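Narrative progress, year one. The postdoctoral researcher (J.K.) led the effort to move from monomer predictions toward full complexes, under supervision of the PI. The following entry was the first complex the group processed end to end, covering 1009 residues in total.
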Amino acid sequence: MDSIQDHIISSVHAFAPEGVLAATLLLIIVADLLPATSRPGVSLGLALGGLAASAAAVVRLPAGETLIFAGMLATDGFAATFKLVAAAVAAVVLVVSYRATDVDREHFAEYCAMAVALSMGAYVMAAAANLLSMFLAFELVSMSSYILTAHLKEDSKSSEAALKYVVFSASSSAVMLYGMSLVYGLTGTLVLQSIMPGLAHSTAPLAQSVGVLFILAGLTYKIAAVPYHFWCPDVYEGAPAPVAAFLSVGPKAAGMAMLARFLNEALFLPPGSPIRAGIDFGNWQTAIVLVSAVTMTLGNLSALRQTNVKRLLAYSSIAHAGYMLMALAVIRPFGVAAMTFYVVAYAIMNLGAFLVVIALGKSMRSEELDSYAGLGARAPVVAVLMAIFLFSLAGMPPTMGFIGKLYLFWAVLEGRGLAWLAVVAALNTVIALYYYARILRQMFFLPAREGAAEIRVEPIHYVVLFLLAIPTLVLGVYWGPLWGAISAAGTP
Amino acid sequence: MANILSWLTFLPLVGMAVILIIPTRLWKNSELVRYVALGTTLGCFALAAWLFFAFDRSSSGMQFVENADWIPYFSIRYTLGVDGLSILMVLLTQIIGVVGVIASWNINKAVKGYFTLYLLLQTGMTGVFCALDFVLFYVFWEVMLLPMYFLIGIWGGPRKEYAAIKFFLYTLLGSVLMLLAILALYLNMQAPSFSIIAMADPANFRADGWLVRNMPTWFFDLTPKELVWLAFFVGFAIKIPAFPFHTWLPDAHVEAPTAISVILAGILLKMGTYGILRVNFPILPAETVHFATFIAVIAVINIVYGALCAMAQKDLKSLVAYSSISHMGYVMLGMVSWHSEAGLNGAVLQMFNHGTITAMLFLLVGVVYDRAHHRRIDGFGGLWAKVPVFSGLFVVASMAALGLPGLSGFISELLVFMGAFASHRVFAVIASSGIVLGAAYLLWTIQRVFMGPLNPAYADKDAMPEISAREVASVVPLMIIVVVLGVYPAPALNLIGPTLGSLLQTMQSAAGAAILP
């Protein structure tokens, strides 16, 4: 018994980042209760401080893979990378939300607390090495997402979006949980690394397949991949714009991390492994490849006819999930690194594009595509920044999005017999350009409508926009160090 | 001069930065912006002139090479260099760059934005011709698209939005296929490298890689090398534009502002044929031989079909656009004529000559459009009496386009046909009808626009003023080049000769006995 206690106690320090976030969460709530500190600025400061401290704790953790809490969580470089992404995304979203129109300033403390909770869930998702911790983290992220979506209590669209989200999410959680129970029943273990050997001994191929498939279904829900993408456009459209920005990046990145870990540890047999199972990664590779191809194609085709910018970006984010899955289909170290690089690029450029929507929302009071007409003349700086983000999303050099896509194609071409998937993705890039160019057309080619509102952008939004645009361009020209750091972080 | 190519490539970016920091409020009429753009392109031209004189005409290899680490993880390098194939294109780019600024002088809408994008375009174009690393090449190739999209879409004609997005989508389709082909080559290299030069040496590829083993795939039994070749070819053919990928060109040309049409026809189209000569020829020579007849067929279709379409046009600008399609066919035909040096030399010279000649035609069409605000060929008539100088220039430009001896177009077309008659006799005979058709549509146009009684619409004294000094200044430099090279083509042929000689050897040895008489 002593040894287990020792192990748990010694694990605690490796849990410091999550611990810091939990403390921050409580601190924000307590501070909001005290009249002296019940101000949005205080909540924001506490949240940012907590996120920064937890990021520092992530960086300070010793490198190298260790499993903590009896194999519940893995603290490797891969998890650390995704934790840093999650912290950065939450920080950007909170800073932006502070001055956004569709965030309730009276309840800003709750908003901050939920954002911190979501980040904590994302941390655990990136590190979860056990079906149980996977599920708990998954639920933590989902719960905080519902609350954030419903943040505007008086706004019926916000509530409707949250309700849809709850229904979809609950059913997909249930499916995933059922899959986990099947796998547990067959193998007697929840630890990811033991699943494959366990399945090798089982003699129920159908139950095996259904179990794993259901777990994968839950995960594809979280990254909004086809066929579990229906919630995404409705939720993004109804949710407050900063929340939509958050949901399009934070949970998706965490979901990709969790999926990568699940595929890598539970399903992927290294070549030459003594275990010969009825199923191995090869079978699941086909599933991932198909989901990837269908997701990117359907996402892009659906985006073509959208007239609401948030919905358009929602479908674009579905397509991007498809691109990322493409690299996971070839889960060797290079594929994982390519996926991670793309997640970082996507986080920066997608937040940038959403932030433009947020920044303009204050003056335009509309997220319809045609309200962007003539923006190039009305607000040239914002329009040019939006163009940069859109070109990056479209994968045009010299932006970071291009480098990300380059590595994805590269990873796929390295995989045997997957050249067709690369061609599908390449054609998708062309489709995608068309709808990104629809925004550009509104902004630059069409004149402003009569009585179009004068655009005023908050200074803080300008600052954050530039903070996102600069890496989009700089990392598009010189990305060596970032790639070095990501590939050094290794695979899950 | 060290790093001359970097200077040449990135000087426009410096000019762009200067334009961006000029406060618009201080110079209301934007004159300063125009002068900065002119100064920048003239500076590039001066550098190019230096390059012209310093270029070693006896060497067939790369010169003025710059080579530096860029992203060391995958040996992505920053490599620039010029050889006989690219030097002419680099020079053309700088000449057209200056001419384009002069032709853009009367742009009054968002002048700052226009010249910012214009200079960015200039960087992209020069970069494409200088880059020797595939990643760098691709970046320049795509960077060029962005300003082009906006230049057509914001400053273009009535259907500008349609033309802009059509151009963008078409070209992007080609480039993404090219990107996959680039990666396919890279993944089969023995030592990781994106160098276009290193890939031209078959010894640098892994012997056990799928590219070298080259087993037929499920995809129509094509081998991987053939697929890679086709991916590159489609990417480049869209730019040329080769039939059936040509449909973006008339739209883009008709809607683009004059200077941008000039750049499109003068430089962008050349990137297609340049790419084929730079990539497909040396890296995949055997496949090029395999597909040579295929290219020749497309070339003939381009020549004849382009000319027939040109004849049917009612709009002056789309007439010139279709004539471009026809003339780029000669380049493709000459490219695959390997029995003598004439074909390849003619092709590359034709790239340069078409650049100057078509640029003149577009400039002159722009001049008449500025005055008449329409371009209908049958809406003019008898202009010679009204504007003799303009008419004279237009006729000389047309004569150059139809290949009148003494003007540069004649020399390159002659060389192309000399080569083609030896290698593809039947195709050459069919293609020669393009010359007749070319003469027909150009002379017919001259007749309808300049001869006969003056159209009463322009009888008024101020209705059609004579070509202005600025407009003459944009056309005359090109005309001088056309006349000089028509009489004495040696300066151009000397530049390209050695490089094309060694390229020809590569092709001849790949073709083996198949092509030798």
